[in-house]
Amino acid sequence: MSAIGDFISPPEDRCGPCMFQAYLVSIFNLASVLWTACIGHCLYRAVRHHDMDVQRFEIRYHIFAWGLPLILALIPSNGMYGYDNGACWILEKYAYMRFIQFYIPLIFVIIFNAMIYSQLIASLRVVLGSTENQETRERDMEAFWRMGLYPVVLVICWFFPIINRLHNFANPDGPVYELYMLHRVFASCQGLFNCLVYGMNRTVREKLPEVFCCRSSSADDDTDEGGGGIQMAQARAAASASDRDPESGSKPADAPEDSDGDRARGSAPASDAV
């Protein structure tokens, strides 16, 4: 949702679209970060505490991940929001409020995720050491590496934005273009990286060929029907004709085959083109 704000071009400072963009960025950027902490807590309860009823935390996760950004978005007065450096958000002269609203919670979430996932990785390491089944071991190893990537995504996406905002705070009159470019590129990649790390598990990877190759499969089926399918139809027609013709000397398809001679005289073999 915060990406929608990137497509808004406010006609003037502190107008309706400008304020709409500022609130979108304030609420949804932080919410996307807080949800990673909720996912980490959910995995921690399930793996470390063997809690099979993590659904009971769902309402609390929603209150936390949506309520805190909403409260923090309402803290700055209207005078603190405005058009600055290509977008509407908290103005440069109120840099401390940027840290209160977003960057301090972000840093806390990064630390929290690092602590949570380090404990989860330690637990999985013990499990890997006691697993003898190769398939189970490979599945656990995949989970092991994916969990290690969860906190890394936040660090990669928000390292340059943090550095850029610290530089803005220390030197508000000397913005660095390269830092702003790295800031925008990596911050915008959070959704992509989350998709790759959180969503690209083994089950999803196995389903992707079925989703993206459906047209190819349909074309293959048509080819089979046009080529091997004709052979199958011919074989079935021959079998049906021999069943109906008492003088053909062949046995019905469902008759038992007693000898090699019977099999030789039987109905045409089924085609394995399909």
The parts where pLDDT drops under 50 for at least 5 residues are 222-230, 246-274
| Largest sheet geometry | 2 strands, antiparallel
For the CA atoms, what is the radius of gyration? 31 Å
What distance separates the N and C termini? 47 Å
Helix content: over 70%
The best one-word shape is elongated
Strand-helix topology:
Blueprint: H1 16-48, H2 58-74, E1 81-84, E2 87-90, H3 95-130, H4 134-170, H5 177-188, H6 190-199, H7 202-212, H8 214-226, H9 228-244, H10 260-265
Antiparallel strand pairs: 1-2
Helix pairs in contact: 1-2, 1-3, 3-4, 4-5, 4-6, 7-8
What keywords describe this structure?
274 residues, mainly alpha, two-stranded antiparallel sheet, 3% strand, elongated
How would you describe this structure to a colleague?
This protein is mostly helical. 70% of the residues lie in helices and 3% in strands. The protein is built from ten helices and two strands. It has helices at residues 16-48, 58-74, 95-130, 134-170, 177-188, 190-199, 202-212, 214-226, 228-244, 260-265, and strands at residues 81-84, 87-90. It has a two-stranded antiparallel sheet with strand order 1-2. Strand 1 (81-84) and strand 2 form a beta hairpin. Helix 1 runs parallel beside helix 3 and helix 4 packs antiparallel against helix 6 (190-199). The longest helix is centred in the middle third of the chain and has 37 residues, at 134-170. The radius of gyration is 31 Å and the shape is elongated. The protein starts with 15 loop residues before the first helix and ends in a 9-residue tail after the last helix. Mean pLDDT is 75; it is low at 222-230 and 246-274.
